[in-house]
Amino acid sequence: MEGIQQIVDVLGGIEVQSPLAFTIGEYTFTEGMNQLDGAGALAFSRMRSDDPEQDTGRQERQRIVLAAISKKVLSKETLQNYQDILHSLSVNMNTNFQASDYIALQKYGYVDAISNIQQDHLGGVGGLRDDIYYSFVDGAELARVQDLLQAELDLK
After folding, report:
1. Which of 10, 54, 58, 103 has the least CB density, counted as fewest CB within 10 Å?
2. What's the total number of domains in the chain?
3. What spatial distance separates the first Cα and last Cα of the chain, rounded to whole Å?
């Protein structure tokens, strides 16, 4: 998770829309728009215990942070920092993504695709089994997500 903190700091921070107000440690987040530095992004994406949706809520905030990072990485304002961005990414993950690929994303308009991200999640009910926390999914929810995936992949 330190990679999230590093990339957000390299980007000069991100803006996220929080679905709820909460405090974790020294960080307080309001419902609505919040400007986050790297440590704030990490705190925002980690909180689970005070979220009414528990782990599902945490996963949603993690998606919010990743979408904000993606949007900022591909924005024209960060083009001048692409080497710092690629370095930050290379420290935390392996990729064959080259600087020329980053420039091509900008040039050929793939930046606009970031505003068209569709998401869903497999809903479940949290519970313990053998002292391990699981998310239990009922058959109807599993069928819903299977149908959605098959439709998106043109398998139906």
Report:
1. 103
2. 2
3. 37
- The reply to whether 92 and 140 lie within a common domain is no
How far apart CA 127 and CA 150 sit, in angstroms, is: 28
Q: What CATH code is carried by the domain that includes residue 73?
A: 3.40.630.190
**153: three-class secondary structure by DSSP:** coil
Note down the domain range covering 150.
120-156
124, 53 Cβ separation under 8 angstroms: no
Q: Is residue 59 located within the same domain as residue 82?
A: yes
- Write out the chain's pLDDT in tens, 156 residues: 778 899 899 899 999 999 999 999 999 999 999 999 999 999 999 998 888 888 888 999 999 999 999 888 877 777 777 777 777 776 766 777 776 776 777 777 676 666 677 778 888 888 889 999 888 999 999 999 999 999 988 887
